[in-house]
Design a protein that fits this description.
The N and C termini lie far apart (56 Å). This protein is globular. The protein is built from 18 helices and 28 strands. It folds into 3 domains: 187 residues, 3-Layer(aba) Sandwich (Alpha-D-Glucose-1,6-Bisphosphate, Chain A, domain 3); 232 residues, Alpha-D-Glucose-1,6-Bisphosphate, subunit A, domain 3 (Alpha-D-Glucose-1,6-Bisphosphate, Chain A, domain 3); 138 residues, TATA-Binding Protein (2-Layer Sandwich). By secondary structure, it is of the alpha/beta class. It has an 8-stranded mixed sheet with strand order 1-9-10-5-4-6-7-3, sandwiched between helices. It has a 7-stranded antiparallel sheet with strand order 21-22-25-26-27-20-28. The structure holds 1,6-di-O-phosphono-alpha-D-glucopyranose. 1,6-di-O-phosphono-alpha-D-glucopyranose (G16) binds next to loops. Its EC number is 5.4.2.2. One of its GO terms (cellular component) is cytosol. It is an enzyme of class 5 (isomerase). It comes from Zophobas morio. This is phosphoglucomutase (alpha-D-glucose-1,6-bisphosphate-dependent).
Length: 562
């Protein structure tokens, strides 16, 4: 049957400005008449002439409203001359899997339906982001263009009678306006599993998890937090590596409301996992992922916590345990600005280039494409390499298991050995979620004003008997070394003369209100086994003093401490 597209008049919505990683709003906002349609049309318009005849990947973490959004995308894409959509079965694709598929199939890009670690369900969040040809999140220049289009959109193209099933794999062909339009529904995990098998030695990992003649099974507890990784965890950990479906994995069925939990792998929202690993001392490693599978948290026996900054440094120091890097070689390392500088010390020792970029995975892409970056990470529980252009939760756990298999050491011993070699960057992050936006903006303005005072550099602050002298203070900006694009206002940094730092930023991933993030980082050469909260207390008090955070936000305590 030949289908005909129509043009539907619409009017702009305010606030369709993508944040750190795509547009994230309450589900009810996306459900408003034409809201999703407008945004999807603007993404396609921003692609310009390249769109006609192109192929796009579509999928996401399966959260509430995903199926409706995919139906909208199918009908708009067909009407706009897209030749083919490759969709994950039931709309399910993790964010790393989308990145991999874009690269494997060499297509124009992908539309990812997720609000990542934000809660899902009808009362919570939905999100849409676009990933470009290299597999990575679209750069600011693209998302800015989309935003400009959303402010003046007056119509979108739609194929109302196009009904397309995506619950089963297979290829469907339609004729729309006399052109062929193909939808290929693929298995959600095949491509990703193949990629992981190319990167890691699955035989060795299986021996670790199942045990062999020389050592007992290494007991893991992998927690998908009811998010999309359940599909991949089942394939990789249970079917390929022989983990027990009863004892080694949990919450592996993706639910559209994540079972009413906050699918964010940190010590607060993954406390359940932390408690289990603490209580059951047979567990050697626990790991959790977020809703769309790009974040990860690693804990060792007795729930020994590995900060994401340390995780990155340890992986950097042990890349020779991973076959992929042995064959491809190791180029530079990178981290986002608020991430503690532990990896910088590894880069210095190994003689690798080191980059410090703004918060957001999109800032790593150009460096990887230019062959200057192999491994990078962020304090926000993101770790990944140039195998794709997104951070990758499952990859990070497989990297850790490869290191453990190679060194035959516990997570804690690996960390302790690392700190003895390099010293330790003590790090903590305080999040003050859902603050009033005006209050948060006033606090940031106060900080801008404070650091602009010529007398601020050189000033001293004392808390609990420790004195810190300001060496440098700025609002972080970045010039991309490859395309020279300039990004400013990326967070207020106060650097002290002993190497400690405090950083203030507003989150770019929330859907309402403002989240203030306070990052604290301090380096110790020898004193490496203290509690981070004790060690950093004076610096935290200095940060609260400089920012006047309690006065501006009315908050006595953070909502999340990492
Ligand atoms: C997203 C980006 C990350 C970034 C994080 C920061 O994470 O992909 O690169 O570090 O946001 O979040 P915020 O702006 O809230 O500090 P995700 O996992 O939400 O896609």
């Amino acid at each position: 049957m030949s289908l005909t597209s129509v043009v539907i008049p619409t009017t702009p919505f305010e606030g369709q400005k993508p944040g750190t990683s795509g547009l994230r709003k309450k589900v009810k906002v996306f459900m408003e008449k034409n809201y999703t349609e407008n945004f999807v049309q603007c993404i396609l318009d921003a692609l310009g002439d390249k769109l006609k005849g192109a192929t796009l990947i579509v999928g996401g973490d399966g959260r509430y409203f995903s199926k409706q959004a995919i139906n909208i995308i199918i009908r708009i894409a067909a009407a706009n001359g897209v030749a083919k959509l490759i969709i994950g079965q039931r709309g399910i694709l993790s964010t790393p899997a989308v990145s991999s598929l874009i690269r494997t199939h060499k297509v124009l890009g992908g539309i990812v339906l997720t609000a990542s670690h934000n809660p899902g369900g009808i009362r919570n969040d939905f999100g849409i982001k676009f990933n470009i040809e290299n597999g990575g999140p679209a750069p600011d220049s693209f998302t800015d263009a989309v935003y400009e289009l959303t402010k003046k959109i007056s119509q979108y193209k739609f194929t109302p009678d196009l009904d397309c099933e995506f619950s089963q794999t297979g290829t469907q062909t339609f004729e729309v306006d006399g052109r062929q339009f193909v939808v290929e529904v693929i298995d959600s995990s095949d491509d990703y599993v193949t990629l992981m098998k190319e990167i890691f030695d699955f035989g060795k990992l299986k021996e670790l998890i199942r045990g062999d003649g020389s050592r007992p099974p290494f007991n893991v507890l992998i927690d998908s937090m009811n998010g999309v990784t359940g599909v991949y965890v089942t394939r990789i950990f249970v079917e390929e590596l022989g983990a027990s479906p009863d004892n080694n994995v949990r919450r592996i069925i993706p639910l559209d409301n994540f079972g009413e939990i906050h699918p964010d792998p940190n010590l607060t929202y993954a406390k359940d996992l932390v408690d289990k690993v603490k209580d059951d001392t047979t567990y050697d490693l626990g790991a959790a992922f977020d809703g769309d599978g790009d974040r990860n948290m690693i804990i060792g026996k007795h729930a020994f916590f590995v900060t994401p900054s340390d995780s990155l440094a340890v992986i950097a120091n042990n890349l020779d345990c991973i076959p992929y890097f042995k064959s491809k070689g190791v180029h530079g390392f990178a981290r986002s600005m608020p991430t503690a500088a532990a990896v910088d010390r590894v880069a210095a020792k190994l003689g690798k280039e080191m980059f410090e970029v703004p918060t957001g995975w999109k800032y790593f892409g150009n460096l990887m494409d230019a062959g200057r970056l192999s491994l990078c990470g962020e304090e926000s529980f993101g770790t990944g390499s140039d195998h794709i252009r997104e951070k990758d939760g499952i990859w990070a756990v497989l990297a850790w298991l490869s290191i453990i298999a190679h060194k035959n050491m516990s997570v804690e011993d690996i960390l302790t050995e690392h700190w003895k070699t390099y010293g330790r960057n003590y790090f903590t992050r305080y999040d003050y979620e859902e603050c009033d936006s005006d209050d948060a903006n006033k606090m940031m303005a106060h900080l801008e004003h404070t650091i602009a005072d010529g007398a601020f550099v050189g000033k001293t602050f004392t808390a609990e008997g420790k004195t810190y002298k300001v060496k440098q203070a700025d609002n972080f900006s970045y010039v991309d070394p490859i395309d020279k694009s300039f990004t400013k206002n990326q967070g207020i940094r106060v650097l002290f003369d002993d190497g400690s730092r405090v950083i203030f930023r507003l989150s770019g991933t929330g859907s309402s209100g403002a989240t203030v993030r306070l990052y604290i980082d301090s380096y110790e050469k020898d004193n490496v086994t203290c509690s981070a909260q004790t060690m950093l207390k004076p610096l935290i008090n200095v940060a609260l003093d400089i920012s006047q955070l309690k006065k501006f936000t009315g908050r006595e305590q953070p909502t999340v401490i990492t």
